[in-house]
Amino acid sequence: PLPPSPPMPPSAPADAPIAVYQYRPVHAGQPYCTVHGCGERCCDRCATHGNHTHALFLHTPKTGGSSIECAAQGLQRRGLWTNMGHVTNVSHTQHCLDRCIVRTVRPWIVLTVRNPYHWHASLYRFAFAGLAGCKTRLNFEHYVDGYVARPPPKSHGAMWARGHVHTQTFAITQACGWPCHYDFLLHTETLEADWAALVRATGLPVAATLPVVNEARDPRGTPPPIRFTIHVLAVVNLTEASIFDSFGYSRRTEPFTYA
């Protein structure tokens, strides 16, 4: 696990807010404002001087983090913020923690998290659309049984052999270790309110509203109904136990259809 967070230093005087909607996609035609696989290079431009503590944003996939990346890219250009993308090795986070120290204070860690049932439904839609690393045409229960319940074979490589890779628990552990010692937690369910609270608490010169990006797309057609059966609930409740226990989400035991 990464070291505990330091006390928050006093905020610097507010500068002129950076417009939130003037974002620049990094790929033409795609609504992404940062490279999601930049590794240790993510923080090459972080400022190590000035009055603001630096911030590292760990974007857990399928949590609405693309909106945060777009809102903060002006901060990133000024060296106040680093969009780490989808971090696949905690050593990359540790590297940037060490590199982006300002006034002997290590950076804040900003993390996104989502209700596990909604997270799995979102990842399934992404996979059914052929946009995720795991592409599928299975129905939801068979997808969960094949991709979530069973760890991949060791022949898939070292990363894939470390556990249930198609879980939010795995994604956060890769980026931050477990338990993750974050400074600010942004929930998908209250993303704009959590972002506004972060802006107020840190004094970062950025608008407190968020753009809407990376909306759901179904280029291969609408997926089958997403039904959380008794079996699916058992798998999610088991593999995401750490998310439920650490972030206060309630487990469900009665079957339901995700809308």
Written account of the structure:
With 259 residues, this protein is an alpha/beta fold. It contains eight helices and six strands; from the N terminus they run βαβαβαααβαβααβ. The longest helix is centred in the N-terminal third of the chain and has 13 residues, at 65-77. Helix 2 runs parallel beside helix 5 (168-176) and helix 4 runs parallel beside helix 7 (230-239). The chain has helices at 65-77, 90-99, 116-128, 140-148, 168-176, 191-202, 230-239, 241-247; strands at residues 55-58, 81-83, 108-113, 184-187, 226-228, 256-258. Strand 1, helix 1 and strand 2 (81-83) form a beta-alpha-beta unit. The protein is elongated. It has a four-stranded parallel sheet. Helices cover 32% and strands 9% of the residues.
Summarize this, please?
With 259 residues, the chain is an alpha/beta fold. It has 8 helices and 6 strands; from the N terminus they run βαβαβαααβαβααβ. Helix 2 runs parallel beside helix 5 and helix 4 runs parallel beside helix 7.
| Tally of DSSP helical segments | 8
Mean pLDDT: 84
Please tally the β strands and state the result. 6
How much beta, percentage-wise? 5-15%
Query: What is the string of helix and strand elements?
Result: EHEHEHHHEHEHHE
Strand order, main sheet: write it out: 2-1-3-4
- Biggest sheet record: 4 strands, parallel
